[in-house]
Amino acid sequence: MAIYAMSDWHLPLGVNKPMDVFGGNWQGYVEKIEESMSRLNSGDYIIMNGDFSWAMHMRESRPDFEFLGRLPGIKLMSKGNHDFWWESKAKFSAFMEELGLSNVHFLQNNAFDCGDWVVCASRGWISPSDKEFKESDQVIYKRELLRLEMALKEGEQLGKPIIAALHYPPDDGFIDLLSGYRVYTCVFGHLHGQAARTYRPKALNCHLVSADYLDFKPLKIAD
Whole-prediction pTM value? Predict the structure, then answer.
C-alpha cells in the first residue's frame, strides 16, 4: 500500500469546459490522468485535494465520478475553490452508493485513517499577505484555520504520522498550525503555470501536487 497525491484534475466530462484551451501539457490531460492512474494498485490511496470537476451540481459531475470509478485506488477527496458541485457528506454517500463506488471518501475538516498514516484535510484559503486579499476574506481565512485544526486534533488522537492535505498553499498562519502537530508532510494544489513554477514553500516538508505541475502523474507521498 502506498499513498499518492494529485489535485486539480478539472475534469470536464459532465460539462463542456476542457482545460485544453490553456495549451501545453493540458492537451489530452484526461487521457494522461487515466494512463498514469492505471498504474496504481487497488489498495493504494490517492489524495485528491481539490478542484476535481468543473461540474456546477453533483448530478452534473456523474460522468466525472464514473470515470474516477474505473480507476484503481482508494480516493480521498477534499474541496477546492472550483468544486461548486460539493454538497453534504450525506448526499455524497447516497450518490456514491447510487454509482456503486465504495472506494471514494470525502474529507471535510476531518481525519482519515490509512493504516500507518492519517490524512487530515481542509480547503485553506488565500493568504492575508496576498495583494488580492480583501477584508471579507479574513472571516473565511480564520474559519479555515479552525477547520484544519479540527482535523488535526482528530488525527492526533490516532497517534500516527499525519499527512495534511490543503487546496490552497499554506502560508505562515497555516504552517504555524501544522508545525504544532505530528505532520509528516503537507500537500497542496491550486497553483498552475508560472505561479506553480516559482512558488517555494517557506517551511515543512511541503509538496505542490497540482496535476499539470506533476505532468498528470500522481506523486508518491508515503509507503
Answer: 0.95
Residue pLDDT, tens place only, 74-84: 999 999 999 99
CA-closest candidate to residue 109, choices 150, 143, 141: 150
Show the cell assigned to 124: 485553506
Rounded to whole angstroms, the Cα distance separating 83 from 144 reads: 16
Of 6, 168, 17, the residue nearest 85 (C-alpha): 17
* Positions of E strands within 59-134: 74-78, 104-106, 110-113, 118-121
Element (H, E) at 94: helix 89-99
- List the grid coordinates of 165: 492535505
Positive or negative: CA dihedral 77, 108, 120, 79: positive
C-alpha cell at 96: 456514491
Letter for the amino acid at 163?
Answer: I
For the chain, list residues with pLDDT below 50. none
